[in-house]
Write a structure and sequence with these properties.
alpha/beta, eight-stranded parallel β-barrel, globular, binds alpha-L-arabinofuranose
Length: 507
């Protein structure tokens, strides 16, 4: 390849602060995600820590997940938290009306919060609006966070946790335009006001996240209806986008079997997500009151291949293609870090774009897991302006897209600077299938800072369909690669279809 890709990183041009929560995750009582992906119970032969699956905890702890959303998803608006606390043998079994089968309620609030604490993630609870009440939501908040000696605080203490749990994020329902109660925007706004008024009053320190929709029309009508007395004070962020790269409707091929054209179709769909982020941001900016920022949350996203059906418990394999997509999406979130305050990949273990897959007592990590391992270095950093000049991949629109697409840059990148002012992180993806790309990173700053040290870690394989499996669990792992340093320029050869993190120090 004779065309060198140039990535220009403008160290003095900060575009936002990267909220660690944009690398967040989501679990639901669905398929084999919780049982037995996370919870095997205290009598299991699978190694566990008080019922929580040890190998999964160990794997997740290593990559520093910032935030975990639970209990759904659609499950949330049919869930009654009181069913899931107290002695396990007294907990009722309930039909799982959205995903089939029954739920033993063995994994409830205390188990979830213990899981979060074991992996170092902040919890994000989604309350039941569709079939619940404000009183039920407020009593859940009281159970989790109340520091006094009210009945629910005493109940928590009786269940082994006298200290309040630090639960900051509270979602007011999930997809309330659909499985969360089939509301229209105005009636959801009325319900939201009621729930949020009492949740806010009961604990003013929490962050309240409303439920939006990928259609700007719903968001506009909801925000319009919420406006008025105190309305904007009741909302901190709106989950405006649930974005699944869905091979059920689009020509993306299967989880493992896909053509080169289907590979590119999937990556072009990221432009659709970006368009939705832009639309959502406009709505938020329009309604925010002076001095207020209403954050944009994308609390479900990821690939949804045709293999993931209700019958398979939304199980699918996860190839290098999924990892490349995740990396490109995370680069996008970094670019919009002024707007996006949280994003949650669906759904961590055994469901959709998982980080871990389990079979019996075995657990493997997926290529997507390694992307999160690379990207957590950006957390909390200042996002920087990046220009990319690289070979272009012509646009071929999947039929589901009617808008004009722009060509893809073969190299996609984002960059951030640590609080010390010298640690520079550049994540780059070679999206092209055919060639390794000679790449130069040009570091531009008024002080003409030079690159003192550099290290590269890469996820790559000879086949983009490569994946880890129970017979070959380490097919895809991270490798250290060579980088060349020359003053303000870093030289790196990005293998075809690969993801790399460059860790640089500036002097
Ligand atoms: O993640 C699977 C489902 O997708 C969730 O339950 C729902 O919120 C979304 O439609």
């Amino acid at each position: 390849m004779d065309e060198t890709s140039i990535i220009t990183v403008h160290v003095d041009h900060v575009t936002g602060t990267i909220n660690p929560s944009i690398y967040g995750h989501f679990i639901e009582h669905l398929g084999r995600c919780i049982y037995p992906g996370i919870w095997v119970g205290p009598r299991s032969r699978t190694p566990h820590v008080q019922g929580l699956r040890k190998d999964v905890i160990d794997a997740l702890q290593r990559i520093q997940l910032p935030v975990m959303r639970w209990p759904g998803g659609c499950f949330a608006d049919a869930y009654h938290w009181i069913d899931g606390v107290g002695p396990p043998h007294r907990r009722p079994r309930r039909p799982n009306i959205w995903w089939g089968g029954e739920d033993s309620n063995e994994f409830g609030t205390d188990e979830f919060l213990r899981f979060c604490s074991s992996i170092g993630a902040e919890p994000y609870l989604c309350v039941n609006v569709g079939s619940g009440s404000p009183q039920e939501a407020v009593s859940w908040l009281e159970y989790c966070t109340y520091a006094g000696s009210s009945s629910y605080a005493q109940l928590r203490a009786a269940h082994g946790h006298p200290q309040p749990y630090p639960v900051r994020y509270w979602g007011v329902g999930n997809e309330n335009w659909g499985c969360g109660g089939s509301f229209d925007p105005a009636s959801y706004a009325r319900a939201y006001r009621r729930f949020a008024t009492y949740l806010r009053r009961a604990n003013p320190s929490i962050q309240l996240i409303g439920c939006g929709h990928t259609t700007p029309d719903w968001n506009l009508r909801f925000m319009e209806a919420l406006r008025g007395p105190r309305g904007m004070r009741l909302i901190d962020a709106l989950s405006m986008i649930h974005y699944y790269f869905s091979g059920r409707r689009n020509p993306f091929g299967g989880d493992v079997d896909f053509t080169d054209a289907e590979y590119y179709n999937l990556l072009f769909d990221v432009q659709n997500l970006e368009y939705q982020i832009q639309q959502a941001s406009r709505v938020m900016d329009f309604f925010a009151e002076p001095g207020q920022t209403i954050g944009l949350v994308i609390d479900e996203w990821g690939t949804w291949h045709p293999q993931a059906t209700v019958e398979t418990g939304l199980y699918q394999q996860n190839t290098l293609r999924d990892a490349i997509l995740a990396a490109v999406v995370l680069n996008l979130f970094t670019r919009y870090s002024r707007k996006i305050v949280m994003a949650n990949l669906a759904q961590t273990v055994n469901v959709l774009q998982s980080l871990c897959l389990t079979r019996g007592e075995k657990t493997i990590v997926t290529p997507t897991y390694h992307v999160f391992d690379l990207y957590h270095a950006h957390m909390g950093n200042a996002a920087l302006l990046v220009d990319v000049n690289s070979p272009q991949i012509p646009a071929v629109a999947p039929p589901s897209l009617t808008r004009t697409l722009t060509p893809l840059h073969a190299v996609d990148a984002s960059a951030s600077l640590g609080a010390d002012g010298t640690s520079l992180v550049v994540t780059l993806v070679n999206q092209g299938l055919d060639n390794a790309l000679d790449t130069e990173i040009h570091v531009v700053s008024a002080q003409r800072k030079e690159v003192d040290t550099g290290a590269a870690r890469t996820l790559a394989a000879t086949d983009v369909r490569a994946h880890n499996d129970f017979d070959a669990p380490h097919n895809l792992t991270l490798h250290d690669e060579a980088v060349g340093l020359n003053g303000t320029i870093v030289h790196f050869t990005a293998p075809q279809h690969s993801v790399t993190r460059l860790s640089l120090t500036l002097t």
